[in-house]
Amino acid sequence: MTRVKRLTKNRMAVSGAVLVGLFLLVGGLAPYIAPYHPEDADLNRTLQKPGAGHLFGTDEMGRDVLSRVIWGARLSLGIGVGVVSIGIVCGVTLGALAGFWGGRLDDLLMRGVDILLAFPTMLLALAVVTVIGTGLLGAIVAVGVATVPRFARVARASVLSVRQRDFVEAARAVGQRSLLILLRHVMPNCVAPVLVFGTLYFGEAILISSGLGFLGLGVQPPLAEWGAMLSDGRGYLRVAPHVATIPGLAIMVTVLGFNLLGDGLRDALDVTLD
């Protein structure tokens, strides 16, 4: 069974792909499908319940919750792409160098990674954002830095399993340079685990950045960000529960979609099942 067929026969993976596709579609088309501007406030319509004029109701400032959730998807998409890009560029580079050359370089890089892994991801992100400052860029860099050691571990493990294979030894035997062997023969065979981990961590990046927003250390007002929306709405749970529950559900469904898709990709790319 081909990998594509295996993926399409996995109902959970297909469900995850649908949720992720919906998230990408909503985020990409936010300027065209949002019924209102996310920052348009009207104090005459504060905390309105979901209805015909506002399908998801309004928040404490009279802003349309549906529009803010849609624009929040666009913002979360950008954060996820930025975080995973930092993880891949920095983490995979460190892990590949450590795994391929080994020795003192491996010991030095991996002990630094171990130190970073000793901190919970959220705590490490909080420490970084405290140093570099809050805001959209700060949230991306903070979560991205917290992601680097995990990508480094995944890349190192993949490189260690590939570098001893026969085709790598053959490349060494014909005199190819080590860097060329790494780039041409080793790294292409490490794409699958990095791709799976990147998909899984995309959802976690959204979750962590939302946590920073909930604490007021991530994306700052008036930008529509799901974590900040959840934080703002918690004070109105008794009188207007939709203000907090709707962005909370958006976070849950999006993270669930990426987790399901990542699990499906892992099964589809598992060579032991061929």
Detail the topology: elements first, then pairings.
Elements: H1 3-8, H2 11-28, H3 30-33, H4 65-101, H5 103-117, H6 121-132, H7 136-162, H8 166-173, H9 178-186, H10 191-214, H11 226-233, H12 242-268
Helix pairs in contact: 2-4, 2-12, 4-5, 4-7, 4-10, 5-7, 6-7, 7-10, 8-9, 10-11, 10-12, 11-12
Describe this structure in words.
This protein has 274 residues and is an all-alpha fold. The chain has a single domain, classed as Orthogonal Bundle (MetI-like fold), CATH 1.10.3720.10. The chain has helices at residues 3-8, 11-28, 30-33, 65-101, 103-117, 121-132, 136-162, 166-173, 178-186, 191-214, 226-233, 242-268. The longest helix has 37 residues, at 65-101. The model has no long low-confidence stretch (mean pLDDT 87).
